[in-house]
Amino acid sequence: MMKRFCVVLIGMVLLAGCSKSDSLNPFEPGVPPPTSTVPRPSSIGIVGDTSDVTTTTKSGIVIMGGGTDVDAAFQWMIARSGGGDVVIIRATGTDAYNPYVKNLGTVNSVETLKIDSRKLADDDGVARIIRNAEMLFIAGGDQSDYTGYWKGTKVMAAINYLLKEKKVPVGGTSAGAAILGNYYYSGERGSVTSAEALANPYIQSITIGKDDFLQTPFLQNVITDQHFSQRTREGRTAVFLGRIMKDWAKTPNAIAVDERTAVCIDENGMAEVLGTNKAFFLKTNTGKTPELLNINQPVTWNNDGKAINASVIAASGGGRFNLKTFEPVNTIGLESYWWSVVAGNMVIVTQ
Fold it and tell me: pLDDT band for position 272 (50/70/90)?
């Protein structure tokens, strides 16, 4: 009888030593079991449900000019995501976008991927997370990181899948917006100012890529620029356009965006401007090529003072711009100018 009593007592002691929290995860006492066993390479943070969802999406492109983010532009993208999974990609920085985006609307999750090597950019798991997204946003930073790490990799293919096949909203700010056009200023040899570009259009720091990165709808004949008025970038964007015309015999356009401002392009190529400042839609003409665009010589691109047609639209005023025709749809908030360059100096006159 005594022996039986001892066995029962030992069993009761053992049971008493097993708390409720211990039973949650036998491998890590006190820690709940993971909700997902799917590996998430390059992830630096996720909020929301880690399980993948499928929602009905609408394509859309957002070109954001940097500085303070435009809440309304993110809400525009969230609405087009159908409340699915949002992925933020970057090469530097933190997961600060996660709570910001999550608080702007209803989404299943927001996750930030820090893709800072070609090894990560060619990782199947990283590409899978991007391909499963219903909304993608490319953070600011240094666009030379994005071209250096991502170009020609599975990450590039995944972004283009979202743009061309899955057709979800995709946006970027600052450096993230710089790579959205088919033509792009890569910045791989440092930045360039307007004064430097106008004085020498073939200065080493002007590096322009084309046809080898992102395939964004309605931006296949476009180069973008950001922080536009705030950093006086009119001259360098004019030089970018002139270089594309001379070097590749193309007739390109540009979309340049001020800080705290975003251009939102819907599935039909109709653009609206949200935020607080202005967006610039710059159109060239095949018959109006630069008169003087040579190494170590100041630029002249005059054409009787009508080298570049500039349509400038104020944010949140109801103005619309058609990317298919590259013409304004209405005159709400619209200012029209002719841009030209004479002996390295910008000349801007009202039409």
Answer: very high
Cα–Cα distance measured from residue 139 to residue 273, given in angstroms and rounded to the nearest whole number: 19
Q: Answer for the pair 333, 313: CB distance below 8 angstroms, yes or no.
A: yes
Cα–Cα dist 316/258, whole Å:
13
Domain boundaries, the chain: 40-277+318-327
**Cα→Cα distances 185→37, 155, 203, 274, Å:** 40, 20, 13, 24
Interval 194-223 mean pLDDT = 98
Average pLDDT over all residues of the chain: 91
| Contact status, residue 200 vs residue 167, Cβ threshold 8 Å | no
Given the DSSP bridges, would you call strands 270-275 and 261-265 parallel, antiparallel or unpaired? antiparallel
On whether the 40-277+318-327 domain is CATH 3.40.50.880, my answer is: yes
The answer, yes or no, to whether residue 144 has pLDDT greater than 90, is yes
